[in-house]
Each structure stands twice: as structure tokens, then as C-alpha cells.
Amino acid sequence: xxxxxxxxxxxxxxxxxxxxxxxxxxxxxxxxxxxxxxxxxxxxxxxxxxxxxxxxxxxxxxxxxxxxxxxxxxxxxxxxxxxxxxxxxxxxxxxxxxxxxxxxxxxxxxxxxxxxxxxxxxxxxxxxxxxxxxxxxxxxxxxxxxxxxxxxxxxxxxxxxxxxxxxxxxxxxxxxxxxxxxxxxxxxxxxxxxxxxxxxxxxxxxxxxxxxxx
Amino acid sequence: xxxxxxxxxxxxxxxxxxxxxxxxxxxxxxxxxxxxxxxxxxxxxxxxxxxxxxxxxxxxxxxxxxxxxxxxxxxxxxxxxxxxxxxxxxxxxxxxxxxxxxxxxxxxxxxxxxxxxxxxxxxxxxxxxxxxxxxxxxxxxxxxxxxxxxxxxxxxxxxxxxxxxxxxxxxxxxxxxxxxxxxxxxxxxxxxxxxxxxxxxxxxxxxxxxxxxx
DNA sequence: TCCTACAGACCGACCAGTCGGTCTGTCAAC
DNA sequence: GTTGACAGACCGACTGGTCGGTCTGTAGGA
Lengths: 214, 214
Known about the structure:
Chain A has 214 residues and is mainly alpha-helical. The first copy, chain A, contains ten helices and two strands; from the N terminus they run ααααααααβααβ. At the A-B interface, helix 7, helix 8, helix 9 and helix 10 of A face helix 7, helix 8, helix 9 and helix 10 of B.
């Protein structure tokens, strides 16, 4: 049995656990790419492994089952988008003079930089898969609900309601996320990007007056 | 080669083409059920065939490829929901005294009777699959865009804008559909149906003032 | 000398799609 | 009206390929 020489990673290998973490991240990254480009149905372990430039052994070493891999990828995706609210202050458009224009810019940024991205799309793929795959659904339930809660507490630090309470801000924020995720699927109905932009902009116009920056 | 006796259909067989149509419909119905309950990834031809109570031969006779089957199922799903607008007048809630209450009831009906159903969910599964499956995407593109256009012309017969033009009604109607489809995926984030209802109701509250019955 | 990171051969199950064969309703020729 | 050729509805065994997952083995840092 002739084993090809182990490919010595050229970059600094650092300590073992650091290397392991790096590999795990590379695998999840590859999974995100596959989910985005091929959809959940065509995202196989073999394809993820090839995309990550690893062997089957490496994959199963870090993630014994596919469910483990998807769950880890989901956690990575969610982890990346918790800080959304916090960033609000520092972003370039925070200098806009009109307050409502700033809210609109924030929502547009959410759509373009967070949802309409490989990450947003792969999250959507996992959500849809978790709907029917009971094992995956149960496995991911906790992460999803907790993330949703954290999202709620984070957003009330940024926005307040002009005439209702904080709970309404949380609800409106959920509506935004729901709409934008739905928009990812609506792409199929539109002839071009302009139609898509029209719908998103109208939605933002609809919701912006009900959100006030703190 | 001993072939089991053909199963003589007990119900009235009618003419050949009627029988064929009935079988095709049964297959699509089975596909809808599978898509709803198992998702696109786990909807195999074998499972559809078993659910429809037919042989593999029957399935491939009517639909040579899986793509053919999905496309036909999609057309069936779209066909069922064109008449949405027309029904508006006759529905029970059309007797409600307050105009805006009638709009709200209509939107709620849309959510509960059209989107949050096996049909709505299976449509969503196909939309998501068509996003990454290029062949399926190309195959279904025409149906989807045409349906969207028909939906637009149908809705302006029912609604008008209180202070904008018909084009805005079309956009708002698209926003409703986008939101509700997104809601199908959001289910995973919510603890219970009450949270779900809260979000949907708030959305309806947001949009109803911008739609006026003709 | 372990233990961990990784390699890759391998497995049974299942996939979409193919194919030879068996029925039965339809219809034209007689 | 009977018959016989034909079309099409339907059957189920089968194929090549892919799936997720298992297992044995190697390399190298601690």
C-alpha cells in the first residue's frame, strides 16, 4: 500500500490544536461554498472534502457525521452575524444627515452585505433542510432559538420604536430578516436585478418609519 | 419470467387519456406530499412512486426524467394559486364591515390557506432547488416569471393604492408573497406558533393600510 | 511512546434512469 | 358484430454511479 507523502502545509503550522481549528474552519468554509453554489441536496461530503483540499479521513476525523458538520457550519454562520447590531455605529453611512436615511441605509446594508451573500444563502439552505430533516432540526434548534434571542436583545440597543415599545422593535427586526430570507427564494420570479431592488427598496421604505435610532 | 397480474383499477377507469391524466395528477400529488414532508433532498423517485402506489415503470412512462416531474408539479402548484385574487369577493370575510379589516383578513387567509400549506411548502422547496440546479432553473424560469406577471395583473383588479399607482400594488403584493415564503423558513427560529402569529400579524398591520379594495 | 491529524481504500444502501415485457382500450377492416 | 393490429398504460428487474459512513494505516509533534 503506497501512501502518498503527507502534504506538509506550507503556511505556519503553529501548534497542533491551532492547526486542527484551522482545518475545521476550512471545512466549514468549504461547506458554505458548496451550500451556496450547489444547494443542500447536492452538497455531499465528497464535494466538501474536495473543495477543502482534504482527504475523506480528515473530514470524518473532525466531523464524524454529516450532521456534525452542518451543525458546526451553522454555528459558524450564526456566530458571524451576531455583531450586526454593534457595527451599526461605526459604519460609513452612520454619518448621513437624515435619521431615516440612516435607518434605510442600515437595512440596505443588511440585505446586501449579510443576507444576499454566500453566507446568507447557505444559512437559508440549512434552515430549509432542518425543516424536514428531523435529526438536524432537533440538533440545531437550540442554536437557532438562542441566536434569535440574542438578535432581539442586540437590536433594541440600536433601535427604539417611535410610538410603541421595545417588543415591537424585536418583531419588526424579525420581519426584516424573514422578508430578506424570502427574497433569496424570490429571485427566481424576477426578470432582473432591478425588479429585485425595487421590491427590497419598497419594503425598506415601509419599515424604516417604524424604527428610530437610539 | 412470471409477471404479477396487472392491478385492475377498481374505480371507474373511464377513457384512456382520462386515466392517464388521473395518474399524472396522482404522481404530482405524491410529489407535493414528499416535498412537504421530506424536503427536496430526500424526495426520490422511488418514494414518490411508492406514495402514489405505482410502479417505477408507470412513473417513468409519464415523466421520463425527474426534472419533467418536478416541472409538472410546479405547474400544477402555480395553476392552483392563480385564482387567489378572484376568490377575494366571495370569501366569507368579505362581509366584514371595516374595509381595512377585510384587507387584513384577506392577507391572513393568504398566509394560512395558501402559503402555510403542503402546497406552499413544496413550492418553496422547488424554488430553493431551482436556485442551484441550473437545468431545473432554466426549465422552470418561464413558468415562474409568467405566473408572477399574471399574479400582478390579477391583484390590481382587487386592490388599488390609497395614494400611489397600480405598480405599487403589484410591488406590495410581491412583498407579501416574499415575506410569507420567508416565514416558512423562519419557523425554525420560533419557540411556538404564537411567536409566529405575532410576526405575521404585525407584518399584515404594516402593509394593510397601503392596500385598498376596489 | 503515545496521541492526534490526516490519508485513502472500502462498504452497503440508495439514487436516477433503462429496458424488455404484459396488459387493455380503441378503431378500422371485414 | 367480430376480429385483429396497434398504441399506450403499466410492471419490475437491472445498471452505473454516488451517497454517508467505516476502517486500517502513516506521519510527526509532545
